Amino acid sequence: MSFWVLTDKGPAHLVTDHERPIFFVSTEQQPLACKTLQKSSIQFQCKPLKLNTFHHEPVTAFYFQTLDSFYRAQNQLKHNKITVYESDICLHDRFLMERFVRGGMMFTGNPIQKQGYTRYTDVHIKPAEYTPSLNVLSLDIECSSKGELYSIGLSGMASDVVLMIGSPNAQDQSDNDWIKWVDNEKALLETLVTAVEKRDPDIIIGWNVINFDFRLLLKRAEVHGLRLHLGRSRRPCSWRHRVGDTSQGFITIPGRMVIDGIDALKAATYQFESFSLDFVAQHLLGKGKATEDIDNRMATIAHDFLHNKVKLAKYNLEDCRLVEEIFSHTRLLDYLRLRSQMTGLELDRMGGSVAAFTNLYLPQLHRAGYIAPNLPEDGGLASPGGYVMNSRPGLYRNVLVLDFKSLYPSIIRTFKVDPMGLIEGLKKPDDGIPGFLGAHFSRTQHFLPDIITSLWCTLPSH
After folding, report:
1. Number of domains within the chain
2. Are residues 170 and 253 in the same domain?
3. Given the DSSP bridges, would you call strands 203-206 and 136-143 parallel, antiparallel or unpaired?
C-alpha cells in the first residue's frame, strides 16, 4: 500500500506493508466461515474481538494477505449466506481513518532518495495539521470532431505553452515562441510527457478534463502504441470506468491529482444554468472564450487548424487561463483543502458524502465497541421528510418565503439523532430522547451530534 504526499522538502512516496485487508463475521458464524474458506483454499487468519454488531452479537475479524484473497473470501461467504460486515471499506481508507488522518499527517520511515522525490518504506503515520503549497498546471486540448488531436495547451507555473501539430511560417516562428511545434500526433503526446515532467505539477486542472481531455489523450496514446507516463518518475497513467457507467471514469496519475473544474464547482455547491466554460467564465469573470462563434466552434477549430494555427493556439491557451482564473476567483483549491482537513476526503474526491461520514464516524464507533451494520437490501425504513403543505393556486401580491438554515443538522443536534445513540437509547428507553416509530436516542452516548457541531464551528461564517 502506498501514498503520495507533499512535504516541505518536496513530494514523497510512502510505502507500508503493515496493513492487511479485513472484514468481520459474527462469532456465531465463525466456524462455518472458516470451513467455507478452507474448502476454497483461501488463506486467512481470524481473531475474536471485543466488538459487537448493533444486535449485540460478538464478532470475529478475518485478515488476509492479499486483496485477491480478500475479495474471493467475500464472494464465497456471501454465496453461502454468511453475513460479512465492513467489507466495502477500502484498505487505504481504513488505514487513514483509523489513525484519524485527515488531510495532513506526520510520518516516519526509511528514506530512499529518488529522482524528483523521496521514497519512504516501513512507514508509520499519525494525524497532523499541514497545509502545503501546491503547484498547479491547467491543461486543455483541441481536436477534430473525430477525436484526432490538434494541440495541447498548458498554463500555470510561470510557463505557458501550446503544443501544436504542424510547422510555423517565418512570422509565426519569430513572434510566437510560446508555441512548440511538433510533426504529428505521436510526437504531440511524447512532447506532453516531457512538458509535464519538466513542470512537475502537483495538481492538473481543466474543464471536463477527466472525462474528455484525459480520456481522449489515453485513447490516442493507445492508437500509437504509447503509454502516457505523466506520473512522477515517469510512471504511467491509468483509467478505470465508473461502475455501471462507461461514459464516466477516473484517471490515476501517480504522484499527481487531476481536478475537474465542473465537478469541483458542483462539490462547492455552485449552480449555473449551464456549466459550459464560456457561460461560467462570463458569469464569474465577466469574460468568455476567445471565439466569435461559440455555437459553431468545432467548425472554427477545424478551419483554424488548417489555415490559422496561431489563432487556434491562442484560443487553446485562453481556455487554460480561464480555468485558472475560475479556480482562483472561487478559491476552489482552498475549499477542497479545507474539506479534506475536515472530512478526510481526498482533494480529487467528488461527492463522497457517505465516505466523509464513514471517515469521521467509523473509527469512533469501533472505539465504542461496535462495528457498522450493513445497509438492508430493501434500503431500510425511510424516515419522514419535512412537512409540505397543500398549495392554494392563484396569483398573490405578497409572498413570504421561510427557509430554515441547516434544519436537519439542527434536528440531529437537538434530539441527539445518531446510529449508535439509537442502539444505546433502546437499552434504556425511559432515559432516552423519543424519536420516530418508537426510537429512543441516548442523551450521552452518541457521536453524530458532536461531529456536526465540530464541522459547524470549522465552516466559514459566511
Report:
1. 3
2. yes
3. parallel
Q: How far apart are CA 382 and CA 408, in angstroms?
A: 15
Query: Do 183 and 228 have their domain in common?
Result: yes
Q: Give the number of other CB atoms < 10 A from CB of residue 85.
A: 19
Phi-psi region of 379 (alpha: psi -120 to 50; beta: other; left: phi over 0): left
Kindly state whether residue 361 falls inside one of the protein's structural domains. no
For the stretch 259-313, pLDDT in tens is 999 999 999 989 999 999 999 999 999 998 866 566 678 899 999 999 999 999 9
Banded pLDDT at 462 (limits 50, 70, 90): very low
**CA distances (Å), origin 138, targets 179, 326, 332, 390:** 16, 11, 14, 50
In a domain, 46, yes or no: yes
Burial annotation 364-375 (CB, 10 A radius, 16+ → b, else e): bbbeeebbbeee
Domain span at residue 426 reads: 397-462
User: Does one domain contain both 198 and 299?
Assistant: yes
Q: Look up residue 58 and give its three cell numbers.
A: 460478538
Last residue of a domain, one of 133, 162, 180: 133
- Angle, helix 448-458 to helix 407-415, in steps of 10 degrees: 130
Q: How far is CA 455 from the centre of its chain?
A: 19
Q: What share of the chain is helix, strand, coil (3-state, %, to 5)?
A: 40, 25, 35
Residue 351 CA neighbour count, 13 Å, CB half: 1
Beta-ladder partners of 214: none
CA distance 92 to 76: 23
pLDDT per position as a tens digit, 172-199: 666 788 999 999 999 999 999 999 999 9
